[in-house]
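quick one, two chains, predict together pls
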Amino acid sequence: MKIVVKLFAGARELAGQSEIELELPAGATIGQLRDVLLETRPQLQPLLSHALFAVDAEYAKDHTPVPADADIACIPPVSGG
Amino acid sequence: MIQLTHEPLDTADLLNRAQTPEAGAVVLFLGVARRFTDGRETLELGYDAYEAMAAKELARLEEEARRRWTLAECLVVHRLGAVPLGEASVAVVAASAHRRAAFAAAEWLIDALKERVPIWKQEHWADGTTDWVHPTSDERSTP
């Protein structure tokens, strides 16, 4: 399945893009998405191990399956306020 | 009430909304763009957000604050985009009948915002460089 991952802040700066398209097997988890993202964009390495992911604007765990049509976002450590 | 805005924060308006005869105590917290951080000089801050999720998380924080404390009013506003030195990037207002709840809620809200809400700060340093701030757990700055 084709998945688009939104990038923000330092991750967007490292990748040079605000969205990355990935190909994932059906039933893949967020953890597997993290691995594929790292393979595709190794420059994200400094942030990726500390980043969380969101599925449809909700924090997800690594074992969460990635739904086919969901909004996926990479959430590096936050610094609001 | 929660809000994300690209405009300067109108603190007079926020206080006006929160100051009612129901609230014997009104607490306002402002997070202000500060000149010095760990010996480096800032020219300006910039804020990015995953807006749809930040709004959801802020609403959840307000809900949780209202569950933990009896509040007459609860307002959280975060500014996005460029924030000049000395201007507020975030405002938290908590109003309650007595002061203990208002102080506690306001402190809890800003602490929780800084942990959970998908908003990111970018330092524009005086030396011309910029850094997105992504603290790892052992790097959290002074509360």
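Helices of chain B lie at 11-18, 51-68, 99-116.
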